[in-house]
């Protein structure tokens, strides 16, 4: 039985973790989900590391929704660096799922984007644990999460 | 008995630690507060790490007030990276409470913002230690500290 | 028998790993290739570290294609920092092969650039493992991968 | 007997370490000063770490004077990140004393600023070692080093 | 017998390592030079760490020539961060010698700058190993490598 960690925030304006967890439950079994909610995205790196080292998670999904200001962009950068660092210290993948509030101006569309991206990355996390060959098959295919795929060049 | 660390600076123009400590004392018992004051925000990361490793703190609140210049923004970025790094090295949460001097132009409002944000994050720290389920309940709710909440999309 | 790691992404719009692997097979023997595909470039650092520490790779080629937006540039920066960090933690070279989508506006040219750069860096990786004297001979020669060489000054 | 480290550069255009050392000698006894001079500010992080780990310093003062160009600003950022990292790896405070050449346009004023800031931070370092209660008393007081204090808000 | 490491790149448009090595041989004896050439500056951090940990170098000179584009500036920043990190992990100085292609528009001058800076930093490295008192004597003197010295203020 593998533990999959899900870390999210009270800052986000959509319950992205609910989408990710729902998707995980639809696509497979053989794992247990451990969820932790923290205030903001800068609290995610250590939350993920604790999920790995204290809760035995074999992979973690880290979800957040940075705001539209310059300050928020810097926060997201710091959080991303921390998430990469946490992975290097644990030899464990953490799938970062960030939806920037300014990726769309429409609230309804933002909710849809957050839902879709969370679900698609939940599938990525699942595949990385149980079906890595599915990722290999899509190498260089220009896949995008949340929006339509870009596809291969030409 | 759990130790809660509080680290702040002489650079800040408001005694944010006093607000955080007052709030902690209002909302609960069962913990001891250990406070350290350093010159500036770049001194906070190691101060917090020492509170965790040398004073046995189970969580730390790091309070600072970066100035309005470009140079100050870079300082805040460096301090934030250091705080995330300190967390990863200790598997312990450090709640960063930064109030940027240019978030408002009015002195009185800045003081109010610093007081409110420090108190709200003190509650976050307390909940993370003693009531993590309260954070889970607010996942994706668009909470903000110091200002009014943004709320969920739509 | 030396293992050479190849890590790439489903985000990239060209199968750069196929080019690198084809080139490796053309130029030599005496090694085994281990390939891992991850969603995006920020997943590469830990993927490479795992190739080194869990699959025994003596060198890794990390291939990715960052998009043209500001956000993509930040992602590439974070990934590059992580790749350097992974190298320092393992004392093992990871050859970063990034092709930025905006290095050219023509799809066909982008594909050619991705193919050429991947092949030339595959040769670099091979030489670093088996023929370091070839790199020493080209020190300060203004070599470029993917485009024509800049050559030495004057 | 406590060792206080002082690290400075040949790049700086003022002998800031001389000011810091003179101030340390005026304000107290019970410590020995160990000084190291390196070429530039990017050499300071490891110089400070060596002062801590190889010379047994309980605190270090790191002095430098970044130039006015964009490139210099990046150097200062890299040095600051390194100094924070060195602190986290040693659980020891390093007081950064940087004077940017463009903080003033007048040579004489720059010299005065460098002298004052070095002395005030020497006192900070001394207090952190021997009188931490003095920093606690000044928490949130808007202290500045080198220029006049900003003071608390309102 | 002390080993001095020299790490350089095939990307650079001038053989800076040759200048550094020639200078080292002119100024002293009692050391052995170990040279490694890598493709680009981002490969330098781990190359230097390997020179220290696998070849027993007591100090390393890292030479590179970043290009003039924004992307090159980011590369140089990443390389510099990695070089500082490598020093902190080994408690060993690595003298970074970067010449930016856009420091001058004239090819002949660029070659001269690269030659001079490499030689002056080779002397810095030599002095740091064998005559640290020479650096101490020049503290705060506004020294510059490659161009004329700025000198002390006033």
Concise structural overview:
The structure is a homopentamer of 154-residue chains. The first copy, chain A, has 154 residues and is α/β, with parallel strands linked by helices.
Which value, in Å, is the CA radius of gyration of chain A?
Answer: 15 Å
Overall 3D form of chain A? globular
| Major sheet description of chain A | 4 strands, parallel
Q: Report the mean per-residue pLDDT of chain A as an integer.
A: 97
Main sheet strand line-up of chain A: 2-1-3-4
What share of residues of chain A is helical? Answer: 40-55%
Number of strands of chain A: 4
**Number of separate helices of chain A:** 5
Order of helices and strands of chain A: EHEHEHEHH
Sheet/helix structural class of chain A: alpha/beta
Strand residue percentage of chain A? 15-25%
- Low-pLDDT windows of residues of chain A: none
Instruction: Describe the oligomeric state of these chains in a short phrase.
Output: homopentamer
Instruction: Give the N-terminus to C-terminus distance of chain A in angstroms.
Output: 43 Å
């Amino acid at each position: 039985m593998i533990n999959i960690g899900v870390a999210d925030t009270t800052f986000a304006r959509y319950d992205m973790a609910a989408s990710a967890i729902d998707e995980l439950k639809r696509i497979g079994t053989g794992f247990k989900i451990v969820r932790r909610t923290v205030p903001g995205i800068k609290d995610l790196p250590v939350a993920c590391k604790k999920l790995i080292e204290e809760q035995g998670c074999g992979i973690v999904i880290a979800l957040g929704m940075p705001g539209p200001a310059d300050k928020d962009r810097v926060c997201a950068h710091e959080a991303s660096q921390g998430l990469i660092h946490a992975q290097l210290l644990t030899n464990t993948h953490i799938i970062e799922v960030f939806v920037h509030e300014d990726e769309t101006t429409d609230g309804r569309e933002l909710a849809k984007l957050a839902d879709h991206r969370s679900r698609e990355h939940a599938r990525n996390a699942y595949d990385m644990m149980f079906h890595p060959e599915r990722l290999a098959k899509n190498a260089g295919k220009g896949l995008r999460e949340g929006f339509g795929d870009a596809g291969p060049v030409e």
